[in-house]
Amino acid sequence: MQDKGWKDLTPQEVEQLLKERKDIQFIDVRELEEYEAGHIEGVTLIPLSQFDIRKSEIDPEKETVFICRSGNRSGKVCEYLSTMGYRNMYNMVGGMLNWTGEVKIGK
Question: How far apart, in whole angstroms, are the C-alpha atoms of residue 53 and residue 91?
Fold first, then answer.
């Protein structure tokens, strides 16, 4: 099996990583309105529409979990960054639609 440059994680696995408080970046790639309607507290918002100009905010040396509504956009971000040499990336499959942990409303 070919390494695609990232791994898929379930929302439950992501919740466990958050509880362990490891040195991991959590990036939500949804748009601001979606984020404000409900997000995981403490994650960084870098909307897909701003991704090209803000991707430098992501430390390529750190493990990074990408999150969106369903796992589609975050998967595309992983695919895009893998072509630029990024590794240590995770896509939360099922996205916020399958998230069962706490959700923060607003900014």
Answer: 21
